[in-house]
């Protein structure tokens, strides 16, 4: 071995001893898989971070009661992965009301995720990401007073204002005794208190409510609607197409599927497909 080669190998060995071990990126409790800054955006809503809106509470999707306490959850970790791939290691979570969010009355954010179904009506106000989750409409009841496919037509049913569940209960099922609540939490509280017989919203959401209140409520059925969830973008924002590339990359490389297995299937304790389907 000549001197130059020995010197080179010595330098390589020294570098190996002093170099820090590689560690995957992490935001909150989310272990990130993409390359930081691989798909940068031109200018975020707020410098140095990704700003994401949500309407809380949203257990399993956003684990925590306040924006400051949230460190993981299905949609939070999607947001964290997007932030990382755009080049940032900070996600600011902003809690907003459901109605203002859906009506396009909130501003200064990069995207919003709150189990939001993509509809033609909402596309008039917002731009949407590619779909990242598929959901039907579930029926949640108290365990001591369940309803079934026939009795629900005459039951007192709670829905959340401006949701697809509300439109389905009234327009598709023809339920006449419908109680409309401004927030999802109000609807579930009314069910537990016996003020309504059933609550109707996305199957994914009612399954999460069972986890939050074990033994008190149950999902007795669901209706097939073919709904998909997407992130909301501010209409016409030049960053929308770039963030959409990240969503598609996360679908293609299996990141979304892994997050769903970790936060959704494991937490629900059952596959949503095992919930029986009611006929409209």
Give descriptors for this structure:
D-Maltodextrin-Binding Protein, domain 2; single chain; 5-stranded mixed beta sheet; 2 domains; disordered N terminus; 3-stranded parallel beta sheet; 33% helix; 280 residues; 9 helices
- Main β sheet profile: 5 strands, mixed
Structural class of the helix and strand makeup?
alpha/beta
Can you tell me the residue ranges where pLDDT is under 50 for at least 5 consecutive residues?
1-23
CATH-level-2 architecture of the largest domain: 3-Layer(aba) Sandwich
* Spatial sequence of strands, sheet with the most strands: 9-8-10-7-11
What number of domains? 2
Described by the principal axes of the CA atoms, the overall outline is globular
CATH homologous superfamily (4th level) name of the largest domain:
Periplasmic binding protein-like II
Query: First CA to last CA: what distance?
Result: 81 Å
* Strand and helix order: HEEEHEHEHEEEHEHEHEEHH
**Assembly form of the protein:** single chain
Q: State the helix count.
A: 9
CATH topology of the largest domain: D-Maltodextrin-Binding Protein, domain 2
CATH class of the largest domain: Alpha Beta
Based on CA atoms alone, the radius of gyration comes out at 22 Å
Helix proportion: 25-40%
| Mean pLDDT figure | 90
How would you portray this structure in words?
The chain folds into two domains: 40-133 and 228-268, D-Maltodextrin-Binding Protein, domain 2; 135-227, Periplasmic binding protein-like II (D-Maltodextrin-Binding Protein, domain 2). Strands 9-8-10-7-11 form a five-stranded mixed β-sheet, sandwiched between helices. The protein is α/β, with parallel strands linked by helices and 280 residues long. It has helices at 3-18, 74-86, 98-102, 120-123, 164-172, 184-192, 203-212, 240-252, 255-268; strands at 26-27, 30-31, 50-54, 91-95, 111-112, 127-128, 133-142, 157-160, 178-181, 198-202, 217-229, 232-233. Helix content is 33%, strand content 20%.
């Amino acid at each position: 071995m000549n001197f130059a080669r020995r010197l080179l190998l010595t330098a390589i060995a020294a570098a190996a001893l002093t170099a820090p071990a590689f560690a995957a990126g992490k935001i909150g409790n989310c272990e990130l898989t993409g390359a930081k800054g691989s798909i940068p955006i031109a200018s975020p809503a707020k410098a140095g971070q990704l700003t994401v809106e949500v309407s809380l509470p949203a257990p399993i999707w956003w684990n925590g009661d306040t924006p400051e306490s949230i460190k993981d959850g299905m949609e939070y970790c999607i947001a964290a992965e997007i932030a990382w791939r755009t080049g940032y290691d900070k996600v600011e979570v902003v809690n907003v009301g459901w109605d203002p969010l859906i009506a396009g009355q909130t501003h200064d954010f990069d995207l919003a995720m709150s189990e939001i179904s993509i509809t033609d009506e909402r596309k008039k106000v917002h731009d949407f990401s590619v779909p990242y989750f598929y959901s039907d409409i579930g029926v949640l009841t108290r365990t001591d007073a369940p309803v079934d496919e026939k009795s629900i037509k005459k039951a007192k049913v709670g829905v959340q204002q401006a949701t697809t569940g509300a439109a389905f209960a009234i327009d598709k099922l023809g339920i006449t005794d419908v109680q409309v609540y401004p927030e999802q939490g109000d609807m579930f509280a009314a069910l537990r208190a016996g003020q309504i017989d059933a609550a109707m919203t996305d199957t994914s959401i009612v399954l999460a409510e069972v986890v939050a209140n074990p033994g008190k409520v149950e999902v007795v059925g669901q209706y097939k609607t073919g709904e998909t969830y997407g992130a909301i973008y501010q209409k016409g924002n030049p960053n929308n197409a770039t963030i959409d590339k990240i969503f598609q990359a996360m679908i293609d490389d299996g990141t979304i599927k892994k997050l769903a297995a970790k936060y959704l299937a494991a937490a629900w304790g059952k596959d949503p497909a095992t919930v029986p389907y009611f006929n409209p």
